[in-house]
Amino acid sequence: MKNMNKRILAALLAAAMTLPAFACGEKIEKGDDSTSQSSDSAEVNSGDENSSGESGAENGGESKAENGNANNGGDESSDDGVIIGEYGEQNHKLVFEQPTVVDEEPVVSTKYAADGKIYIAKTDINGAAVTEAGGSEVTELYTGETNAASYKPGYTPSIKTYQAYWLDISKRKDFVFDGNLLEFEVKVKENTPDGVYPVEVYFADLSNYSANTDENAAKLSAVKFIPGYVCVNSDQPEQPKVGSDMTLTPETVSAKPGETVRMNIRVDNNPGIVAFVIRLHYDENAISIENAGAGSDLGGRATLTARTLDE
After folding, report:
1. 297 compared with 62, residue with greater pLDDT
2. What does the pLDDT average to over 35-54?
3. How far is CA 43 from CA 14, 88, 155, in A?
4. Bridge partners of 195?
């Protein structure tokens, strides 16, 4: 897709094909605190989308994982977070961090209608906005297939990106499941005005054990995204239904200013994966991500390289 993304995907595919392999390191930062610390579950690193630094997948994991985190079944964990499996393959724990360069499509603005549904501006074949005879904008129902952010008039969000890396080829087969893939502890800031704040996946690079050379490759490359929302003293909006495509959907949650809530990212119609790079947007003016880890369904299957928040 784009140069950085191609390099990341190439590394993941090489990992799945060659044994041994390579993935990413582990560290954690909470909120805007610049102090890093090791964690059994995951690593979160905040910052704006133009921040610099090498990503975990690019540098092979520069931070230290605690020895013995995944030392079960004869597997060995090195100081850089690489876990050597039974067949000599190199796996990596789930990691969250701020990507070095975010090369992405623009965030599309959407609007709430009186029916509680979300609408997006309709465009013609050239991408120009479609208007009625009187000049008013024509809208259409938002289906979740584009990047979108919904805010009240006059509000300016501050968009940040989090990125998750993961690779586990220890079982030499795909992890096939639907359910909770990732989990976040999201804190609503004390001064957050009432409203609905999107948390949305906008990019996903996925690989299976065949390095995307089998009949499921098309499903992995055509993954769809549906946004989730943090609703602060506000009704939850109606969300599009999941179709037959592989889909990533952050959970919609309700909270009050100052509260911390759990938010899962769910995967549906998953044909099987062993690695991913996933990026999501959130509004740092309204919320902060305090912690992150594997969702219960990923953590329950990939215990070698993934830990849930509760572990």
Report:
1. 297
2. 38
3. 24, 25, 30
4. 232
End-of-domain residue from the set 92, 126, 146: 146
Q: How many domains does the chain have?
A: 2
Domain with 113 in it: 108-146
Distance, in Å, from the CA atom of 172 to the CA atom of 50, rounded to the nearest integer, reads 37
Domain co-membership, 74 together with 192: yes
- Measuring CA to CA, which residue among 257, 205, 207 is closest to residue 231? 257
Three-state DSSP at 117 gives coil
Q: Which residue has the higher pLDDT, 147 or 44?
A: 147
Q: Across-strand partners of 120?
A: 110, 140
Pairing of strands 179-188, 287-294: antiparallel
Task: Spell out the alpha helix ranges (H) of 100-197.
Answer: none
pLDDT bucket at 38, cuts 50 / 70 / 90:
very low
| Domain shared by 134 and 151, yes or no | no
Q: Which two tokens stand for residue 30?
A: 């909470």
Is position 193 within any domain? Answer: yes
Predicted local distance difference test score (pLDDT) of residue 191: 94
pLDDT score of 56:
37
Residue 138 and residue 55 share a domain: no
| Tokens matching residue 301 | 């299957």
Decide if pLDDT at 22 tops 50. no
State which amino acid sits at residue 66. Answer: E
Residue 143 has what pLDDT?
A: 74
The residues pairing with 216 across neighbouring beta strands, listed in sequence order, are none
| Residue 32 token pair | 């805007």
Kind and range of the H or E run holding 7? helix 3-18
- Whether residues 72 and 156 fall in one domain: yes
pLDDT digits (tens, 9 = 90+) for 173-194: 999 999 999 999 999 999 999 9
- 157, 250: one domain: yes
Q: Considering the entire predicted model, what is its pTM?
A: 0.71
d(CA 178, CA 194): 33
Q: Which two tokens stand for residue 245?
A: 């495509």
Distance CA 136, CA 79 (A): 60
Nearest to 256 by CA among 289, 231, 229: 231
